[in-house]
Amino acid sequence: MSQDRVIIFDTTLRDGEQSPGASMTREEKLRIAKALEKLRVDVIEAGFAIASPGDFEAVKSIADTIKDSTVCSLARAVDADIDRAAEALVNANSGRIHTFIATSPIHMQHKLRLQPDQVIEQAVHAIKRARNLCADVEFSCEDGGRSEIDFLCRIIERAIDAGARTINIPDTVGYAIPHQFAETIRQIIERVPNADKAIFSVHCHNDLGLAVANSLAAVTAGARQVECTINGLGERAGNASLEEIVMAIKTRQDILGVQTGIVTEHILSTSRLVSSITGFPVQPNKAIVGANAFAHESGIHQDGVLKHRETYEIMSAQSVGWHANRLSLGKLSGRNAFRTRLQELGIELTDQDELNAAFARFKELADKKHEIFDEDLQALVSDTVTDVVERMRLVFLDVTSRTGETPVAKVTVEVDGVEQQASASGSGPVDAAFRAVEQVANSGATLQLYSVNAITEGTDSQGEVTVRLEKGGRIVNGNGADTDIVIASAKAYINALNLMHSGAHKAHPQVEGI
Ligand code: KIV
Ligand code: ZN
């Protein structure tokens, strides 16, 4: 790979999934992985194979399917993790094991309770084991942003000798400041004697809002892989956002002098897919993919753009996928057109029942809504096709809501195949609907977040609702879409209850320590 090429390593499916409530099903992860492949991401971190049987299956099915991107699994620096990662990647066209251990004094002393030399030995052992199972091994110095540079140089030299070909310096807690982080990366590359045998990578968290700035600063210091996520999703305040990194590199070639292989025109559709699947809406003023990112409000700006676009735009909206012809299908479109458009969006419905259910739902939607856009299709598939066991299903909802009167909701919900009815009043129609569903479910979960987003423009748009529920420390995000936002809300609530019910325990890479 040429010296000026930056490898884009996407960790939406692993670190992104560590956002509270952002867990995805295997089928959803596969859909995102296909979109990432189409975007021409170099490396897809598909998950943490040992975390749970579900994670293993997700990594495996992505490794079995994706051909053009390298597929990677995270593994702590322990034998069982590495073996499980290798097992999940066995059929990958190009697979990578990403192993890590903490290197900061605070983590080594309080979390690992190991001496620095023991940490080095454990890392070397893990890398050698991984190299015996997979030719492509990445090693990460967890909490690298707070690690001592002398120790980093020591462990990295040994890691490269043991066979790691990518060395990642994560700013795990988002503590770094751009010029200081760049200096750390520069010094490591200068001081590690065998640095020429590895590609240096960074993985920045956004606790101080500096993840993208730190990543770009590291690129100027010689890093040639950046780990990032779509929409900046990730643990706590998130990771560096892929779209911002990629567009900064593309737009400021003059300063940065490097390139990525990303097909930027697919950025917006991938962002929307991730948002719709995870239920994490994109803020309107988010760079690149926010609804206002290319909207000019002030008259002076509008006038300038009309006369000469570059007066107020540093990149074109088209270059990231805005204003692409998003009109997808209409009322008269048939099953073939429906299936073909889904395929073009990277959605493969091989199961006939799933295709029939999605098509029926499309026809229902087309009756209510004149024009069906790609975003509608994505929401529709998320809503209809799921590999979560649907223990509960909304059968009927009737809500009365009048000025000056308390809204009342009546619901029929199917639970384990048996229909149950309930009614409740609430402060608004959504509150009444949730209370009625809760009467049937009796889940005891607490509502942490409720959000509604219009999927497309116009008052006939579908509302996409996210409901975040918490119970016993477990958090799930349920989604639902419908042209009626009260129905969308009830569906989202029920979806969250189904997720809560079906969820298996999952290990967290940085908590369940070695
Ligand atoms: O933030 C971090 O340190 C990580 C590592 C596991 C790479 O996510
Ligand atoms: Zn991370």
Quick summary:
This protein has 514 residues and is an alpha/beta fold. The chain contains 17 helices and 16 strands.
Ligands bound, unique: 3-methyl-2-oxobutanoic acid, zinc ion
Mean pLDDT: 92
Tell me the fraction of residues in β-strands, as a range. Answer: 15-25%
How much helicity do the residues have? Answer: 25-40%
From the 3D structure, determine the CATH topology of the largest domain. Answer: TIM Barrel
Structural class: alpha/beta
CATH first level of the largest domain: which class?
Answer: Alpha Beta
What's the shape? globular
Number of helices: 17
> Any low-confidence stretches, pLDDT <50, length ≥5?
none
Biggest beta-sheet profile: 8 strands, parallel, barrel
Number of strands: 16
Give the number of domains: 4
